[in-house]
Design goal:
The complex is a heterodimer of chains A (115) and B (111). Helix content of chain A is 0%, strand content 48%. Chain A contains no helices and eleven strands. Classes of the chains: A mainly beta (115), B mainly beta (111). At the A-B interface, strand 5 and strand 9 of A face strand 4, strand 5, strand 9 and strand 10 of B.
Amino acid sequence: EAGVAQSPRYKIIEKRQSVAFWCNPISGHATLYWYQQILGQGPKLLIQFQNNGVVDDSQLPKDRFSAERLKGVDSTLKIQPAKLEDSAVYLCASSPSGGVGETQYFGPGTRLLVL
Amino acid sequence: GENVEQHPSTLSVQEGDSAVIKCTYSDSASNYFPWYKQELGKGPQLIIDIRSNVGEKKDQRIAVTLNKTAKHFSLHITETQPEDSAVYFCAATLNAGKSTFGDGTTLTVKP
C-alpha cells in the first residue's frame, strides 16, 4: 500500500513569510497527526484529526499555525507569519482509527528553514 | 502533561554487541509504549511496541521491557549490525493515541 505522502520535502523562507505543507494519509486512515520535530528532539504533536474533526490541538500555536483536513482525507498545515524558531521538520502521520496501540505511519516530513 | 526522558542521547557499539536504550515516563495513565527507528531524511518507523499489561516483548533481535511500577521501559537490540545505525525514539501513549516522544538516541554500530 502507498505510504503517507508529504510535500514539499524542503522549504526555505524568510521570517514573517507564510508557508503551507500538504499531507496525504494512507487510504482509509481516519486519524491524521501533524508533528513538529526540532533538530535533536523527538516529534511533538501539534494537532490530531479524527476524520475532519480536531481531537487535540492543545500544543498548536494558534496565533500563527492553522491546519485543516477538508473531507477527512488530505490535510494542510499553515504557518503565518513564520518565526526563526519554526525551523524544523514537520511530520505527518496517520493511523486507522486513532485507538491506543495502533501503529502510526509517518511520512518523510517537510524540512523548513526560516531565515 | 506526560514527560518522557530517554538515555543515552548517543550510543556507540561494536558490531555484534548489544545495545540498550532506556526511557522513563511520568504519567501513570500511559498504557502503550512504541519504539521508533528514524533514518536520515525519513520519518520514524515503528519497530516494536508494548502495552501496559505486558512486561516483556521480543521480536527476533529486538526486545522491549516495561516496569510499570517504576515507570520505565527499555529497548534491547542484540547482535547489532551496521544497518541498525539510526536514531531511536521511545514514546508513551495515553488514550486516543496521543504520544509523547523522548528526545532520541543516536546509535552507531561500528563494523
